């Protein structure tokens, strides 16, 4: 395997994972979100998930800033390593936020699809769960 192929193949796989994640997200959000009561419960879950993610990522950001400064100050590592750490942390956080966004919205759509059978519910649930994994791979 040539060096060029070894470099481009993972980038292509990552890009395909992101494309599939975007396509799956659009498909999930196009599914029916259930009746009014289901949507009210889903809204409460979404608010709770958002509050959780904001609190968690605020704490992680403080630790991330400290680690970035330490990496930048170590002469053997320097600014390039610190910059790489920041890029990785931002993409990891982005994958987490998008994954949670899709997962909580897929939940109510899975419940609605379950009223029409196991097959439709499994399709929504599987795609909803795959988005986070694929974005972690693609953005990584």
Write a compact overview of the structure shown:
The protein is mainly alpha-helical and 140 residues long.
Tally the helices: what do you get? Answer: 4
Q: Please state roughly what percent of the residues sit in beta strands, choosing from under 5%, 5-15%, 15-25%, 25-35%, 35-45% or over 45%.
A: under 5%
| Rg (C-alpha, Å) | 19 Å
**Biggest β-sheet strands, sense, barrel:** none
User: What is the helix content?
Assistant: over 70%
**Alpha-beta content class:** mainly alpha
Count the beta strands.
Answer: 0
Q: Please tell me what the overall shape is.
A: flat
- List low-pLDDT spans: none
Q: What separation lies between the terminal Cα atoms?
A: 22 Å
Average pLDDT rating: 91
* SSE string: HHHH
Can you tell me about this structure?
The chain is mainly alpha-helical and 140 residues long. 89% of the residues lie in helices and 0% in strands. The longest helix has 38 residues, at 36-73.
Can you tag this structure with a few keywords?
140 residues; mainly alpha; 4 helices; flat
Element layout with pairings:
Blueprint: H1 3-29, H2 36-73, H3 78-114, H4 118-139
Helix pairs in contact: 1-4, 2-3, 3-4
């Amino acid at each position: 395997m040539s060096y060029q192929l070894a470099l481009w193949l993972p980038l292509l796989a990552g890009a395909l994972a992101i494309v599939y994640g975007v396509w799956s997200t659009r498909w999930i959000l196009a599914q029916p979100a259930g009746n009014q009561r289901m949507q009210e419960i889903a809204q409460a879950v979404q608010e709770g998930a958002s509050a959780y993610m904001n609190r968690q990522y605020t704490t992680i950001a403080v630790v991330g800033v400290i680690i970035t400064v330490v990496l930048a100050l170590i002469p053997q590592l320097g600014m390039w390593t610190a910059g790489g750490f920041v890029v990785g942390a931002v993409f990891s956080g982005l994958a987490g936020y998008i994954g949670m966004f899709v997962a909580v919205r897929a939940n109510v759509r899975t419940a609605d699809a379950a009223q029409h059978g196991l097959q439709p519910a499994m399709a929504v649930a599987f795609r909803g769960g795959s988005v986070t994994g694929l974005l972690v791979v693609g953005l990584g």
